[in-house]
Amino acid sequence: MPATTPSPGFLLSFEGSEGCGKSTQIRLLRERLEKSGRKVEVLREPGGTEIGESIRHLLQHAKEGHCMTPETELLLFAASRAQIVREKIRPLLESGAFVILDRFLDSTTVYQGIARGLPLESVRAINAFAIGGTLPQLTLVLDMDSATAWQRIHQTGRELDRIESQPQSFFEKVRQGYLEVARADPSRVKIIDASATPEAVHEAIWNLLTAQISL
Ligand code: TMP
Predict the structure, then answer these.
(1) What is the domain extent for residue 177?
(2) Is residue 95 part of a domain?
(3) 158 or 189, greater pLDDT
(4) Which ligand 1 atom is at minimum distance from the Cα of 46?
(5) Residue 107: is its pLDDT beyond 90?
(6) Would 76 be classed as within a structural domain?
(7) DSSP line for the chain
(8) Position 5 in a domain
(9) Local confidence band at 6 (pLDDT 50, 70, 90 cut-offs)
(10) Looking at ligand 1, which atom is closest to the CA of residue 59?
(11) What CATH number is attached to the domain comprising 71?
């Protein structure tokens, strides 16, 4: 993977399986950062640009997505990422913004590489091409046991998308995949225990972040 591109802003990505509480933690962190005077931008993947949102629809809800091969899935996630990096992330970092990503390249490594079983060498090469050196300074993985995460998703009562409808065994592969990614890159990827209360998880995130940068 190429080295991180230096820029005045800060790039933080959140990762974890569905149902791990990512959206709540992103909202809490955004509010606290804004209170401390930072310009904050939250971007989601897949999506975050007009092209990316069309790709998101194709990946998650479109009926033609149901016969999608894992290879196509990988390339569509990468295409969405290539667009958001150049159209949004780099200009925001140059302007000094604190950019929070709701998923980034590690999702592809875990979901398409480890959980779907595509060759990891290909996944790495495609990820590297898509990000072109724009790597997060910090990645937080919200870790939770897969049975709880799976139950949470199924208790929402809403219609589940193509990936959320996977069996619990897929959620377990995702969890193990993230633990593997963190072991492989411990200086960038940190595991946060997401089983505590939202407030306690937020404090753990804040402590980790403020130990790394002054806010
Ligand atoms: P979410 O961000 O709302 O959880 O939805 C994104 C879904 O897409 C989620 O099921 C994880 C999946 N995903 C991948 O499989 N690979 C990727 O590279 C990304 C960004 C997401």
Answers:
(1) 10-212
(2) yes
(3) 189
(4) 20
(5) yes
(6) yes
(7) -PPPPP-SSEEEEEEE-TTSSHHHHHHHHHHHHHHTT--EEEEESS-SSHHHHHHHHHHHT-GGGGG--HHHHHHHHHHHHHHHIIIIIHHHHHTT-EEEEES-HHHIIIIIIIIT---HHHHHHHHHHHHTT---SEEEEEE--HHHHHHHHHHS-SPP-TTTTS-HHHHHHHHHHHHHHHHHSTTTEEEEETTS-HHHHHHHHHHHHHHHS--
(8) no
(9) low
(10) 8
(11) 3.40.50.300
Distances (CA, A) of 189 to 73, 179, 196: 24, 9, 20
In the chain, what is the greatest distance between 2 CA atoms, to the nearest angstrom? 48
106 lines ligand 1 (CB under 6 A): no
Domains of the chain: total = 1
Q: Give this prediction's pTM.
A: 0.94
Whether the Cβ atoms of residue 9 and residue 92 lie closer than 8 Å to each other: yes
Confidence of residue 193 (pLDDT cuts 50, 70, 90): very high
- For residue 30, tell me if it sits in a domain: yes
Atom 19, ligand 1: residue with shortest CA distance: 107
Cα separation, 164 vs 109, whole angstroms: 17
Question: Cα(37) to centroid of ligand 1, in Å?
Answer: 30
In this structure, what token pair is assigned to residue 165?
């409808």
Atom of ligand 1 nearest to the CA of 22: 4
46 lines ligand 1 (CB under 6 A): yes
